[in-house]
Structures are given as structure tokens and as C-alpha cells.
Amino acid sequence: MDKINMKVERHQWDMTVLAFWISNATLLLHYLKKDPGLADATIQFQVQLVDLINEIFILIIRDAERRMDKVLDTAILDHETIPFDNLEFAGEWKMFRKNKVQAPEPVSYKPPPPNKKAQPSPRNVTSLLSSTLFVLDLYDIHSVITSQVLAQLFYWIGAELFNHILSNKAYLARSKAMQIRMNISQLEDWARSNNRTPEHYEDGSLTSTGETTVDAARKHFTPVTQLLQWLQCFSMLGDKPDSLDSLENTLKQFTRLSPQQLLHSSSNYRYEKEEKVLPKTARKRLMDLQIASKKRVEKARRDRDSMSHAVNTAMAPPKTPPRRGDLAGDLPLSASSVNRSEAFNGIHQTEEEDPISDSLLMDPAHMLQFHLPTTVDMRISYGAGYGGLNRERERKYIPTVPQEFLAKLDISGNRNTFERKEWDIQADDA
Fold it and tell me: Which residue in 166, 223, 265, 416 could disulfide with 256, CB within 3.0 to 4.6 Å?
């Protein structure tokens, strides 16, 4: 375990080494759990392996994010699939504008210059996703872990794009929203082309269940896609006489956007010339929704604090032992246990609910809940499967040790003979 930890620490920015060791650690954990004798004797090391797998998982995510972060802005936010020429925005004027009207040039196809071909595009991001998936498949990482790697990367991409759009006024325009939405659609196409279903089995089911790659992309891209839809449609609400009703119907579709985000994006929006401005009644409605949302957040925070205080008070030991005959001393143990159980259930339900956030931006560093493949998942994936039909795969995962290595092991039980043998020194150099 110490040598594996040292190897991982030295190569924490090398995805191939990380994938190699997360695959080996998962297999080793499976072997320790599968053998009845080892399962009881190696509990301490099983816990260490679980922590190690979780740590390597995070390192793989960070390495993939580091690679994509170099091209994400230029490839998704700035890439123009269909260029919009001669766009003019209200309140903005161009320097050195030519008053002379020039005759239009004849339409002819010209190949783009070499520097234009080299500009980043969504393909740069999908290529990095493909290379990450290739490495995970190359080292035979369990599908449950692979699906979570892709889901975490989708969340990070969606959060980064969401924050950059909301923080930069240059992207808060209808034309830019259309461009970015088309670029994101290419990421969704990649998810459909590389769709995976994790080999996860629940409650004795014979078919695998779990979040597919397509579902994960759709789920984690929803906030940014809804923001882009809002930027494309809200300026048209002023054309209708029942603009307030249209606003209410529109807001029902944006379930992942808060009133604060809607109001911020509309307040900093870049209107094109002759584009309708959001009506004052609609803006006032958004402000009312924002105030109501803040009140709900404050109320939820007070409720959590009061619940936590009540639990701490109920669990705190008395300052002086109760006298015999007092009500507290005569309280039956079962009733006291029920009260404590109810208090814990209340605080547990509060923690399981989705956190109420009043933040304008998303948290790209947030890690989704990570879970290892279950014992059943590993027995099926690393064995012959249900019915024992896939014998070839079962033979592939039978652990073997070379005879040359066994010959160097001392099975006499003398611990003194394990001091720096030749094979141990070679293992250090590996």
C-alpha cells in the first residue's frame, strides 16, 4: 500500500499511470472481498484501498479538467459555427464607420486560410473526452467508475460554461447564445455516440441499471442550456400583450435557473438594434421572485440552525445527575431512545435534501457523490456473469502469480528473511 501511494503521488498528473493503478486497486479489492479468509483478515487494507481508489478518481478528474481548461473557452464560447456579420448592438457604436456604401462582392467559395483551420472548435473538447475514455477502457476500469468519471467531467464543463457566460457581458446576447448552444450540441452528440450503461445491479436485478452517458450529459448540461434558451427568448416577451402570462409560462420551463440568475442575465443583456426590451412588469416580477427566493433561503437556514440546536440540546448530558423521583430520571429508556431517534431522523432528512443555494454562480470544484461498484457488480463484471456463461472473461480475471516471483518468496514464516531481497529492490526501481 505504501509503494502504491508513493507511485500515485509521483504521477498524479499522468492519467495513464493513474488509470493503471485504479484498475489494479479495484481488482485487488475484489479479490480480497471474494476470498472468505482474506475478507476477514484484510479489513484494514480494504478500507485503505477504498480511500486510494477515491483519491485516484479525483486525480484523474483533475488531470482531465486541466487539459480541457486550456481550450474550453475558445472551443465552445468563442467558436463561430455560423458567423453573424454586421451585427449592431443598442448603445454601442463603431469607430471609423464608413459612410460610403460599397457594392456587394460576388459570392464565391474561398477555402479558409491555414490559421483559420487551426482555430479551436468543439472537436478539441470531444477529442479530449475520447482520449480520456480510451485510457479508461485500455486499463479495463470498471464501467461503474468510468460512468462517474464522464458524469463528473460533464458537470465541470457545464458549470464552467455557465459561470463564464453569466460573468462576461460579451456572451449575454442572443446571437452568442445561439452559437454556444450549437457548440454544446456537439458535446451532446459525442455523449450519444459514446453512450455507456454501467454494469450496476440492484436488488437482485438481472439487468444492469444506472445513469447512462447520455443521461449524465443531459442532466449536467441542463443549467447552461436553459440559460442559453433564456437569452434567446426573453427579449421576445415584450411583443405579446399578455407578456406577464408569457413570462410565467416561460419561467416554468427553466427549472434549474434561480430568479437571481434570470434577473442578472437580463439586466446585463446586450440588446441588438431594434430588439425589444424586457417589459418593466416582467422585470418587476423577476425582482419579486428574487426577494421571495432569498426569504426562503433565510428561512431554511434558520430552520436548519434551530433543528441542529435542538438536537445538540437533546443529546447534551445533564450538568447534574437527576435526583431519584424526578421526571427526567423516571423517563423510560425506550421513550428517550424514540425521542433521540426522531431528532436524528429530522436532521438526516434535512441533510439529504438538495442544498438551497443563493449563489449566482455554480461551483465547478464540487464533486458528485462517488460510489464504488458493489460486490455483486464486481463478481459479475470480473466473473462469468449471470448463469456462468462467459467463461472466457472469468479466466481473464483469475489472479495468477509467475513461478519466478513465487520462487523468491519465503514461505517459512521467518520475518527476518524479508529484509531487502533482490526482488524487493527491483520492485522499488519499477
Answer: 223
Q: Identify any residues that bridge with 268 across adjacent strands, giving them in sequence order.
A: none
pTM: 0.78
Residue 209 dihedral angles phi and psi, to the nearest 5°: -130, 170
List b or e across 295-311, with b for residues whose CB sees 16 or more CB atoms inside 10 angstroms: eeeeeeeeeeeeeeeeb
3-class DSSP state for residue 89? strand
Rounded-to-integer distance, Cα 144 and Cα 378, Å: 10
Q: In this structure, are residues 229 and 207 in contact, taking their beta carbons and an 8 Å threshold?
A: no
Distance CA 145, CA 372 (A): 7
User: Which ranges of 168-279 would DSSP assign to H, the alpha helix?
Assistant: 174-193, 213-233, 243-251, 259-267
Q: Average pLDDT of the chain?
A: 80
Mean pLDDT over 334-359 rounds to: 38
Nearest residue to 57 (alpha-carbon basis) of 95, 25, 102:
25
> What's the distance, CA 360 to chain centroid?
18
Q: Residue 183's CB: how many other CB atoms inside 10 A?
A: 20
The number of beta carbons lying within 10 Å of the beta carbon of residue 122 is: 21
Which residues are registered as beta bridge partners of 272?
A: 89
Residues in CB range of 322: below 8 A, 6 or more apart: 328, 329
3-state DSSP call for residue 268? coil
Whether 151 contacts 63, CB under 8 Å: no
Specify the DSSP class assigned to residue 356.
P
Tell me phi and psi for residue 132, to 5 degrees: -65, -45
What is the DSSP secondary structure assignment for residue 367, as one 8-state letter?
Answer: P
How far CA 119 is from CA of 65, 386, 392, in Å, comes to 20, 49, 46
Which of the four pLDDT bands, split at 50, 70 and 90, describes residue 210?
confident
Task: Give the contacts of 297 (CB within 8 A, at least 6 positions apart).
Answer: 356, 357, 358
Cα separation, 36 vs 39, in Å, equals 5
Cell numbers linked to 38: 482474506
d(CA 428, CA 419): 13
Please identify which residue in the block is written with the cell numbers 531487502: 420
**pLDDT for 352-387, tens place per residue?**
334 435 689 999 999 999 999 998 889 888 988 777
3-state SS, residue 331:
coil
